[in-house]
Amino acid sequence: MSLENKLTDIAGEIQKLQITSSKAIEARERLDAQLQENELVQKEFAQLTEENTVYKLLGPVLVKQDQAEAKSTVDTRLDFIRSEIKRIEGQIKDLDGEMEKKKEELASVQSAIQIRNRQNASAGQP
Predict the structure, then answer these.
(1) CB neighbour burial string for 77-111, b if at least 16 within 10 angstroms, e if fewer
(2) CA 65, CA 51: separation in Å to the nearest integer?
(3) What is the C-alpha to C-alpha distance for residues 98 and 13, in angstroms, rounded to an integer?
(4) Which DSSP string corresponds to the chain?
(5) How far is Cα 106 from Cα 90, in angstroms, rounded to an integer?
(6) Average pLDDT along the chain, 126 residues, taken 10 residues at a time
């Protein structure tokens, strides 16, 4: 494989990694929004008294829900969102590491091409 083909392949791999990283960052942002929303709900629940009624939206209908069950559901959802955020952050970190390796590889191939071109140019001169 020629150096130019290798250069093109590496550039394509970097582009794919950037797209994957961008999607992971978007997922992280969505999870952050969900986390904030659920934390707000959790704070609201903390202010409830036993006399307050909690309703759950099921389709177009509001259905009465047990406070303890609703609080438990939100707590579970928060745990899940936090674990997903950690997973996505790890994925982003791994992708960043892979991109750095590919960029170093790209620089190395570019260097090799420049050296080869200089050698060819000096060999052509009398």
Answers:
(1) bbeebeebbeebeebbeebeeebeebeebbeebee
(2) 13
(3) 10
(4) --HHHHHHHHHHHHHHHHHHHHHHHHHHHHHHHHHHHHHHHHHHHHT--TT--EEEEETTEEEEE-HHHHHHHHHHHHHHHHHHHHHHHHHHHHHHHHHHHHHHHHHHHHHHHHHHHHHHHHHH--
(5) 24
(6) 91 96 97 98 94 94 95 97 98 97 95 90 72
Nearby residues of 44 by Cβ (< 8 Å), 6 or more positions away: none
Strand pairing partners for 65?
A: 54
Tokens (6 digits) for 83 = 């674990």
